[in-house]
């Protein structure tokens, strides 16, 4: 992942002339401006996000400059990495970067003779060996989502984020499944609680699309599962929580249900039937 980030920054930011260093290389004699790249901790977050590694980028310019140059270099770094699906040139691992904000405040580093600012990125690398999620309910929900949005730029994913996910996109996954007896003895009701993750190109696009999808779910009442077979999913209690993290938690919470026929219980076959008439009748 480190090599992929270095390659991306070198290609996109010509002003640094390929000067991307690591912590042990930092010294006053290094050419400026440069970017200090530091790898942080690695953790396995969830089944749908996979392995997340934290990286810090420190845009560094001479102390004889001012922080407007740090601002400009910071903007270029975020533009180059945030939301971008990259490929590591050494391992060929695909991963995606997400800007998480600054690391503390601006600072002057006298030892390195620079002024700088820390930018934190989470780098999501899904395990390529993961089994593909195949679920006809999720497939139907994804298809309905794309039809409802009506914008070819949007993508819909099922079960987990792919390694090469792009913005704007929506991920649908299951949070829980339960069954209950139907109104008739021959049926049961299956209910699945779904989480929708909406990732926009801007905060405003993300918020507006999340609200629009929740409203469309409320108005739809049912969405097609199989039109030829006249099978539908019933939409129950959709709601939105914009405070939840779009990537790891998901902002839309909704339950889908469907009544299905209960399988007839199979008993042992009768070997023979005897009949004796009543002589007194």
Low-confidence parts lasting 5 or more residues at pLDDT below 50? 264-275
- Number of contiguous helices: 4
Widest β-sheet, arrangement of strands: 1-2-3-6-5-4
CATH level 3 topology of the largest domain: STM4215-like
How would you describe this protein?
With 281 residues, this protein is an alpha+beta fold. The protein folds into 2 domains: 2-125, STM4215-like; 136-261, STM4215-like (2-Layer Sandwich), CATH 3.30.2000. Helices cover 21% and strands 41% of the residues. It has helices spanning 2-12, 67-81, 136-149, 203-220; strands at 20-21, 34-46, 50-62, 85-87, 94-109, 114-125, 155-158, 169-181, 187-199, 222-226, 231-240, 252-261. The strands form 2 sheets. The chain has a 6-stranded mixed β-sheet. Strands 7-8-9-12-11-10 form a 6-stranded mixed β-sheet. Strand 10 (222-226) and strand 11 form a beta hairpin. The model is unreliable at 264-275 (pLDDT under 50).
Features of this protein?
281 residues, STM4215-like, 6-stranded mixed sheet, 12 strands
What can be said about this structure in brief?
By secondary structure, the chain is α+β, with helices and mostly antiparallel strands.
Describe the protein's topology.
Elements: H1 2-12, E1 20-21, E2 34-46, E3 50-62, H2 67-81, E4 85-87, E5 94-109, E6 114-125, H3 136-149, E7 155-158, E8 169-181, E9 187-199, H4 203-220, E10 222-226, E11 231-240, E12 252-261
Parallel strand pairs: 1-2, 7-8
Antiparallel strand pairs: 2-3, 3-6, 4-5, 5-6, 8-9, 9-12, 10-11, 11-12
